[in-house]
Amino acid sequence: MATSLFPLDVPKALFHDLLVEPEEARSILRPQRDERYGFGFALSPYRGCGHGCRYCYVRDYPQPGHSPEQWGTWATPKLNAPELLWAQRHRLHRQAVFLASATDPYQPLEREFRLTRACLGVLLQCPTTRVLLHTRSPLVLQDLELLKAFGSRLTVGFSIPTDDDTVRQVVEPHAPPIPSRWAAMELLARGGVEVNLAACPLMPVRDPQAFAHRAKESGASGAWVGSLRLLKDDAFYEVLARNDWLFILDSDYQDRVAAVLQGTFPQTRRRREPKAAVPPPVQRPPFTAQRSLFE
Ligand code: SF4
Q: Is the CB of residue 222 below 6 angstroms from any atom belonging to ligand 1?
């Protein structure tokens, strides 16, 4: 594990309109104590994210050379991520690692760079380490055999925050369509990989009951509901207002969807973000289907 997997002088390049800026990272494991979800380190093989979700709070993290408005237009593969991880693997004894808190480990660049795959190869050799992997992309299937090799110490959380792909087209225009995520979830589960539904951050769900059934049918063994983290003066607030989706900020709405999911997945976890400093939600009716379900 001493040799570099990639040339160190990969230049800046465009990958399907994404500016790719490879780098040599200085560190790869970020301590991130999360008692509720049980992980102790976050591992991000990339900085930036080609999915560029419009609500992504990571866009506000300081990123040298990039403004928050440029989020989704660039990504930085950490070329030495597997080597750094190998050198740090002694820290992972009886620990859980989360891929990834600030990027999608299966964003489109992974097709070329295979850094997530190489990092998983290192983690596979850490027999007491548990792995939580979170993605929006069916690209995860390219590593199905590797994921299976982890057995019960790996869980994939598939992020499916809405049952409506027209909502996805507005909020995550560059992320894979919702039907492709259900299909990928099913293939993972059928392959023997433990997979959970991550309705996170929760967006409009037209039919929570059908949503829960779809997750069950697709092989999910658990669910996780998380609320949206809005930044101060977040432009995404306007996106919600324009589309009459401000109701997703109401904890009542989030609780109701979580309760329906709990009917199917009793261990459904609910994560609340601190309230952001935004104007008070305008009271507008949610989707008709939702009202009839909840009233
Ligand atoms: S996939 Fe995750 S990290 Fe990437 S832009 Fe979307 S929310 Fe942010």
A: no
Pairing of strands 194-199, 130-135: unpaired
Mutational pocket test of ligand 1: of 58, 60, 98, the residue with most ligand atoms within 8 Å of the beta carbon: 58
Question: What pLDDT sits at residue 289?
Answer: 39
E-strand ranges in 108-187 read: 130-135, 154-159
Q: What's the pLDDT score for residue 264?
A: 96
Please state whether beta strands 269-271 and 46-48 pair in parallel, antiparallel, or not at all (unpaired): unpaired
Output the pLDDT for position 3: 42
- Domain boundaries along the sequence of the chain: 13-294
Choice from 18, 44, 49 to test ligand 1 binding pocket (greatest atom count within 8 A of CB): 49
pLDDT at 12: 65
52 lines ligand 1 (CB under 6 A): yes
- Return the closest-CA partner of residue 175 out of 71, 10, 54: 54
Q: How many CB atoms sit inside 10 A of residue 225's CB?
A: 25
Asked whether residue 78 carries a pLDDT value surpassing 60, the answer given is: yes
Nearest C-alpha neighbor of 139 from the set 51, 213, 59: 51
Model confidence, pTM: 0.89
Q: Give distance in angstroms: CA of 151 to centre of ligand 1.
A: 26
Cα 58 to ligand 1 centroid, rounded to whole Å? 8
Residues pairing with 270 in the sheet: 225
As assigned by CATH, the class of the 13-294 domain is alpha beta
Q: Is the CB of 200 under 6 A from ligand 1?
A: no
Q: Which tokens sit at 230?
A: 């809005």
> Does the CB atom of residue 136 touch ligand 1 within 6 A?
yes
